[in-house]
Amino acid sequence: MNTATNMQNQSTALSISPRLAKNVRRNIKERVIELILMLAALSAVFTTFAIVAILLYESLGFFKVVSLVEFFTSTEWTPLFEDAHYGIMPLVSGTLTTSAVALAVAVPVGTIGAIYLSEFASHKTREIVKPMLELLVGVPTIAFGYFALLFVTPLLQKVFPELPGFNMLSAGIVMGVMIVPYIASVAEDAMRAVPMSMREGSYAMGATRFQTAIRVVTPAAVSGIVAAYILAISRAVGETMVVAVAAGQQPTLTFNPMDGAATITAYIVQVAMGDLPHGSIGYQSIFAAGLVLFALTLGFNIIGHIVRKKFREQY
Amino acid sequence: MTTETLKTKASVLENLVAVRAMIRRHKRNDVIFAAIGLIALMLGLLTLLTLFLDLVMDGYPRFTLEFFSNFPSRRAANAGLLSAWVGSLLVMTVTFLTAVPMGVAAGLYLEEYAPKNWFSDLIEINVSNLAGVPSIIYGLLALGLFVYGLGLGESILTAGLTLGLLTLPVVIVSTREAIRGIPVAIREAAYAVGATKWQVVKDHVVKYSQGGILTGVIIGMSRAIGETAPIITIGALTFIAFLPPTPITEVAPFINFEWLSSGFTVLPIQMFNWLSRPDHAFHTNAAATGAIIIVVTLLMNGTAIYLRYQIRKNIKW
User: Fold this and answer.
1) Counting CB atoms within 10 angstroms of each CB, which of A203, A254, B49, B159 has the fewest?
2) Same domain, B72 and B108
């Protein structure tokens, strides 16, 4: 509608009147502004492409030296040693173990919290509790790293005296506490999307709040809750400072949370702290590790969003 | 017939007691679960409190003026935060100047201008995807692109741009949310008196959503100030015993941009550095730094939450 009139204005303006000439200038200005705003929005697309391009480009150099078979099957990751091995599995095992511990904490606590917020809490309680959870999310992860290394680990060592100073257990637990608000808020959104009529139907049958929450609301919101878990995994996998500080720096192929082991993120931090020449295999190795990390989180994010979309369309 | 009715009546009475007991049991379950739920939610808060108290107690000896005015040192007791807090301030300035204009502009475009087509969908998918990318990946992007690709080096500019990209999705999302709350009628009224699209956006949409945008900006900035991983990845030095050149000079043109290319350290990096030393005396410094970072981020987040609360309370369309 606008474009047609604009075009007309532009073609006839200069010859007709100063008022229409002003209109032309106005239209050009409008267009330029729209273009600028669009470029700003495009920066998001550009960032994504830049991330993929940089990771692929630097990894390509890495995979010229290291075969994909060795990358995925070797059980040692020692790119900086004389006797270099390039198996990503020890880093992946560390990442998965810390994430598993974190989820073991965050899933039950977060789910119970979500059920409470959505089904039990009064409006007033919710107004107080939710901002507090947001505050928790705002705490820098390096502070949680300190907490894991110098508070939780000594505490755990009283229970398990043989626990090493760097271990995946305490890093995982602290990470779990960090993720609780995230699971709670996404799962709560899913539960509140369940229509009131379903709850009312349940209450009319004489069910209590607890029964309604567990047998009616939770099953109805299950895909949203699962999506919360999946998105939480992606968070845990990408978490850096807690594991870099508290889980250890030695890549070890182990799934025992009582051991210390490096994660993908911890390895990247460790290398970046050192002084590696640009273009060396060590430098390229952090991009290869980053590529695996990016693929993992992207995969979980996509699955999470697909599952999450499903529950929205249900009612 | 009658005997059967009587029998049923008796069993009903018997059952009634059982049913009442069941109802009591179920109601008790309600209360028990509510208590468990509240405890589950408080767990996080309790952790935060413990964490903060732990940091304050461990770092207590360092809460002195010298801690803020000294450079890092090999002796823990003399080491200070001067270069770190100045670095944080400068990096945040760059981050603010990149993330806020770009994020607000992108949010405006997506809400007010973007047509419904594959192109807008592409942008939207990218924004929500970027929000889920781990921060350390942004560090790798910056290392490959800014540090080596564009040759900006391990500078304040690189760090600021990196954190700017990281904050961008937060600003975009909050801008869009703030704009979405504005009723169409406001826009229509402006169009009706002959305003152009940009005039509507600039004078009405931005004006009424600025509180919401500000909330998002504060939250994004507080996230950026505590970010450690991407800054480590670009190779920030940790032992900085100098200050970047001052941005404001005494001779014309009074502003100089040398500080942008200066080496730097920031608060969380300084904390990480002290924390990873085996010497326990440095852990005290780390704790004090951690407490300071937490106070700063909590203040910023608290302000944002309060602001949002006020906006919700005051604006009724």
Assistant:
1) B49
2) yes
